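Recall that a protein's primary structure is simply its ordered list of amino acids. Everything else, from secondary elements to tertiary packing, is in principle encoded there. The following example makes that idea concrete.
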Amino acid sequence: MSKEQEKPSWWQRLRPRLLAFIVWSIARAIGLTLRLKVLNFEQVLERAQQGKGAVLVTWHGRSLIPANVFKGRGFWAIISLSRDGEIQNHIFRRFGFRIIRGSTGRGGIRAALEAARRVSEGGILAFTPDGPRGPSRQVQPGALFIAQKSGCPVIPAGVAAYPCKFLPTWDSYMIPLPFARGVFIFGEPVEIPDGISEQEFERLRQKVEQDINRLEAQAEQMVRAKRV
C-alpha cells in the first residue's frame, strides 16, 4: 500500500476538529462581548419564515460577525473541499450552519447547483462572493448565478467593528477586539432575472459589489462615530 493510500492517522483525523474548536471558541468569545447593532435583518427573517430563499453576501474578510449573528438559524454555507475547508466545515457546523461542500477549484458547479436548489426551496445562503481565495472585495459570478437559478434575490450586507485588528491575509481578515462596537447592515434585495444579457449580468454584478462597499462604509462611519 502506497503512502497516498494509507489511512489518515488519528492526529490527521483529530486535527481539523481540534483547530475548529479553538477557532470557534475564540470567535464565540469575541461575539459574546461585542456591542453589536444589526440593521434591516428583519427582511431576512421574514423571508425565512415565509419559506422564501435569499443569498446573503458580504466580504470574506468580514465573516466573523455574520457567523455569530447567523448562529443556530440553519442557514446554508458553501465550504471548499480543501484541507482548510475541512476545518471551516467543522467551525460552521458548530455555528449551526448547514453545509454544501465545493469551491471554484473542485466541485464548484455541483455545489452551486445544489445551493440554488436549497435557496429555491426557501433556504437562506450566507455567501462570501470574493472567497475562498479572492481577489479580495471583488464579487465573483457565483452568488449571482445561484440567485438567478433559484429565482431568489441577492441581499448585500456591510460589516464593521471598532476597535479591531486586520490579519495579514489575502482578505485582510477583521478581528474585533473584546468589547468592540460592531455594526451589521443589510441592504435592499437585488433581483437577478433569468435570461438577461451578459452586459446586464455584469451591471448587476457591479451593483452588488458597490452595494456591499457602500453598506460597509456606512457601518464603518457608525462604529467610529460611536453610534452603536
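The chain has one domain: 9-224. The chain has a mean pLDDT of 92.
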